[in-house]
Amino acid sequence: MADVESSLEYTTSLGSLPPPRTRIFKIIVIGDSGVGKTCLTYRFCASKFPEKTEATIGVDFREKVIEIDGEKIKVQLWDTAGQERFRKSMVQHYYRNVHAIVFVYDITNAASFRSLPAWIEECKQHSLGQEVPRILVGNKCDLRHAAQVSTEAAQQFADSHSMPLFETSAKNPSHADSDTYSSNSDHVEAIFMTVAHKLKSQKPLVLSQPANNTVTLRNQRGGEEEKGGWSCNNC
Amino acid sequence: MNVKKSRSGASSPLNGIDKQDAESRRKKKEADITQALSVTPVDVAVLRRMAISEGGLLTDEIRCKVWPWLLNVNLEGISEQLEEVDRTNNKDYNQVLLDVQRSLRRFPPGMPDEQRMGLQEELIDIILRVLVKNPQLHYYQGYHDIVVTFLLVLGERLATALVEKLSTHHLRDFMDPTMDNTKHILNYLMPIIDRVNPEVHDFMEQAEVGTIFALSWLITWFGHVLSDFRHVVRLYDFFLACHPLMPIYFAAVIVLYREEEVLDCECDMASLHHLLSQIPQDLPYETLISRAGDLFVQFPPSELSREATQQRRRETASSTFKDFDLASTQQRPDSAVRRRRRGEREQQQQGPPAMEAKQGAMVAVRPAARRFVRLAVMGITVALGAAALAMVNSALEWAPKLDLHFFP
After folding, report:
1. Which residues contact A231 (CB under 8 A, 6 or more apart)?
2. Could you tell me which residue, A4 or B278, shows the higher pLDDT?
3. To pair with B302 at 20 to 30 A between CA atoms, which of A33, A196, B122, B225?
4. A78 to chain B: nearest residue by CA?
């Protein structure tokens, strides 16, 4: 993981102006209230677990500049409110020109998993169908003992919607009850990097293409992601 | 603009006199409030003025006495015994619990966990109690940010009564089954900004930033975004004494105050949304409050509604506001300004209509604009009290685009 880490250059500040032709990947993060959307996006952009997160009201925005194959890319994450009333009339403005979608559920909350079809439908209504890369993230893996959603069920769902599945924890790895030495934080990083690689490999960005090639990332990193226990449907 | 650091004079010896002065004004204000509360009937008009003018209602002790009057809640009608709350069969319980559990930042930093958890339980009960009693109201994320402020100032019993009244009036639109009306209220933001600073308005339009950056400001009365509780309650004094649309005027004033930052920002949705949604914590609240009051008088909602609305007229909180006694505060200065304004207009009929007065013509119009602003400020002073006086100077630098068409 360390080699990946060191190959990245990132910033969480808008102040550092990237060169004018920096490509921007706009990713929207959606899912039920309390599944950890804010934690995931914060984790990726600030590289740490936020101490106190509150309900997101409307839409929050975070970004990070990454480097892939020498190209600087701005990854913009739009973190949305989970409560249904917000998505109906408020959030649609932010669905425009989205390059990728991250669906999030909480592995300890079966209801958040059952809501996924509604979220997928929501995206379709905003003209974001299968041509837009989508991934499924099961969050709060550090609470595996309280899991209500099995990896198998999630994998099956992901397959049926042609999405790769990731299971992760945005939380500080010291709280994880897994016995592996691995650090979960890297997984959040890797998930968004996977999406970024995927987007970069598309030319043009909106090119219709099934969402199945995390190969780019895997080739570069070998099989390392196996260690942390997250999986994707290509594994 | 002499708007920064109005409150932090303690460390500077030069401010000794100011401090003394502030102390005596404070004493005077306390006495005025006590006086207004002691007469029969209670002088609600004075209480409104006190809540709006510099420093607001000063202490939570005073707020406990005055807020009920601002909301027209009869203290004697509040039952001693709070109703029991059945959490098990409540459709909103899960969402409320989730939001309240995460609302740690709303409690004073030094508060012991046990005390905080007790308050969080009370917070859940207040919310559920009001929702159960008023099935037409729908919980929204952010409602808890408002209720917690009332709980911390008033305690559970009084907070329950006031929150219920507030929810069926000021917050009513936010609690519809959908957020369509909330969206409609947000639509007032850009027309207000346009009136004052078309350049900022056009820049924001070009960036397509939308208005969601102000959503949490509006529906939590800034309780969600301001970290200093003193600022939050100061704003609540102001909003409780005003028209329900005042928070959107205040939102506009914040954007306008950050004019330079906005115009320096990259002109795209993400950058601007990011900039605007990060609210500065050191805002000059008193100045901004009087500016918001000024804008409300100059460009009342009725003047903006045509632009703000593309849809049918609906029953909004602003239309239910007539339930309140607002005679002196909102209406009189408004009409006074209109009268003065009409006089102004007659004096300078030769002036070009500002609608056509683009860049060059604006310069010619400006002296008239300045005169108008000063008069307007005098008019507002009736409503806003001493706070408005403090802004006379900065208002001149801040002359809004003069547009005679808005005052027929």
Report:
1. A151, A155, A165, A166, A167
2. B278
3. B225
4. B270
